[in-house]
Design brief:
By secondary structure, the chain is of the alpha/beta class. The chain contains 11 helices and 10 strands. α3 packs parallel to α6 and α10 (about 225-230) packs parallel to α11 (about 235-245). The radius of gyration is 18 Å and the shape is globular. Bound molecules: adenosine-5'-triphosphate and magnesium ion.
């Protein structure tokens, strides 16, 4: 469904992606793992057209999309839930959802999609007239996901949905993602919550400084000592850094 080959993306003169190749098959939940600054967000932005790769190709359902406008890419069925949610804080919950459905012209369809969102997240229905910026972090994340679902995407890009949420809400969000996947949405999930992400994913890519350095299934990646050391809190390095930080 999605294929990146040798993607290189720059911010000015700074190269953020050094030839990234990856694949997401229809129906899969694929995760991209990596530390801060590795380039995870840049991969998602390159896919949804918010930044344009200098080299390489991106195909979605067989069509090349790496030179298309973001709006066109959305209309092809790629939904993007950005990092830190980025809902419109001054707009109400309902207005945020309408913004997500801006490409939908038929009123009935728009109405139905909103009903589906409320069915999925009943809290949003209760809060539909509330200003989105006054909702809790978890509620805002649910709204951000619902907003992207308004176009009924074939592929959903999720950028660190668990960021800044309490452990209980993180659990809720991962349960939601699992449910969405079960309902047939193909998902590309960026996470730093390695254990949780891998436990619901079919396949994972590990990114370091703009390059994929490992990929595999949950079991395969857990077998890799380097993954355990760097991302799962095991190994000498992590223990030492914990000591340094005094925790
Ligand atoms: N708008 C920008 N202008 C200049 N450099 C940028 C910009 N956005 C990102 N970068 C740089 O590109 C690199 C990759 O950033 P990116 O946001 O993709 O990382 P990330 O893996 O999503 O990190 P995090 O886990 O902190 O969200 C970093 O070195 C970052 O400083
Ligand atoms: Mg990021």
């Amino acid at each position: 469904m999605l294929k990146l080959v040798g993607v290189e993306t720059y911010y000015g003169k700074v190269k953020a992606l050094h030839g990234v190749s990856l694949e997401v098959k229809e129906g899969q939940l694929v995760t991209i793992l990596g530390a801060n600054g590795a380039g995870k967000t840049t991969i998602l932005k390159s896919i949804s057209g918010l930044v344009e790769p200098e080299q390489g190709t991106i195909h979605f359902e067989g069509k090349r999309i790496d030179r298309l406008d973001p709006e066109k890419i959305v209309s092809m069925g790629v939904g993007h839930v950005p990092e830190w949610r980025r809902i419109f804080p001054e707009l109400t919950v309902k207005e945020n959802l309408l913004m997500g459905g801006f490409l939908i012209e038929e009123k009935d369809l728009l109405h139905n999609r909103m009903k589906e969102a409320f069915h999925h997240f009943p809290i949003l229905k209760k809060r539909k007239e509330q200003k989105a910026g006054t909702m809790s972090g978890g509620e805002q994340q649910m709204l951000a996901i619902s907003r992207a679902l308004m176009i009924k995407p074939k592929l959903l890009l999720l950028d660190e949905p668990s960021l800044g949420l309490s452990p209980l809400l993180v659990q809720d969000i991962f349960a939601t993602i699992k449910e969405l996947h079960k309902s047939g949405v193909t998902i590309l999930l960026v996470e730093q919550n390695v254990n949780r992400a891998l436990s619901i994913a079919d396949y994972g890519y590990v990114l370091t400084t703009g390059k994929i350095f490992l990929s595999g299934t949950y079991e395969e990646l857990l077998d890799e000592e380097k993954v355990r050391e760097q991302y799962l809190g095991e190994g000498k390095y992590v223990r030492r850094s914990k000591l340094w930080s005094g925790s």
